[in-house]
Amino acid sequence: MTKMGVVQLNSGADPVQNFVDLSARVRTLHQQGARLVLTPENSLVFGSKEDYLQHAEVLGHGPWQQKFSELAYELGIWLVIGSFPIRNDNTGSLFSTCLVYDAAGHLRGSYDKLHMFDVDIADQHKSYRESDTFRGGERISVVDSPFGTLGLSICYDVRFPPLYNALADEGSQIIVVPAAFTKVTGQAHWEVLLRARAIETQCWILAAAQTGSHTHNRETWGHSMIIDPWGQVVCRLGEQPGGLVANVDLGVEDAIRDKMPVSRHARLTTTLKVV
Asked: Which of 118, 238, 267, 272 suits 62 as a labelling partner, its CA being 20 to 30 A distant?
């Protein structure tokens, strides 16, 4: 059993202020016993395309990634940065990338968001075109940790069950969902999608969200939560910035999988043919 935490932020375009807020929340959760902490999508930069371009770094290099590494090392925790703009030096492409640091401050894994949020929403921002800024990733990512195997995803990914099935097939025991869900879609779908992914994969779900009003008339839903493999919400936040900690017990997961071995029962991907 391991204490794990999620951070809920109200990030803006200023990475300096965002890092102050992020590090304070992470420190508080560490004091509460968390050995792994997840932050939301766009933790350090939540703004315009120009903001992401200005602060993007090459994977594994740059002052902000160094700060993430130093924070994990100082506290002796695993730190999962929900997303940060990563630039490919060869192509110039930007990716929305989840970064996983171990307790020694080493970058142990990363994941480029697969699904781009290109949708129209009935809110003040109206049109979201994430692909205008970021390129979609091309692979799934799992990371071994002392606390269990981590499956990585980001925000809009949660609407695509095949990704989560693939993460479970690769041995994930805990799946992280850092997000910046809009207030409109979050109120309608956030919890039900997260609980469905937990039930389907029989994994623990750590969901860290942005909340409140942001630049460019964006509003996010908040309601970060930790969900067990039975689909029950263990703990949750409301619409204010904050953090929460819960005991993640992989024994619960093992018991559920033993009694209801859905992964062994699945037929569509193994025995049924399309005709």
From this structure: 118
Chain segment 66-110, per-residue pLDDT in tens: 999 999 999 999 999 999 999 997 888 999 999 999 999 999 999
Rounded CA-CA distance 262/256 in Å is: 10
Average pLDDT of the residues of the chain:
95
In a domain, 107, yes or no: yes
Residue 274 forms part of a structural domain: no
State the catalytic residue, choosing from 41, 130, 219, 253. Answer: 41
Is 203 considered catalytic here?
no
Q: Which amino acid is at 85?
A: P
Distance CA 171, CA 68 (A): 26
Catalytic residue among 113, 130, 219, 253: 113
- Check if 259 is active-site: no
d(CA 257, CA 253) in angstroms, rounded, equals: 6
Number of domains in the chain: 1
Catalytic residue among 98, 130, 155, 219: 155
Q: What CATH number is attached to the domain comprising 200?
A: 3.60.110.10
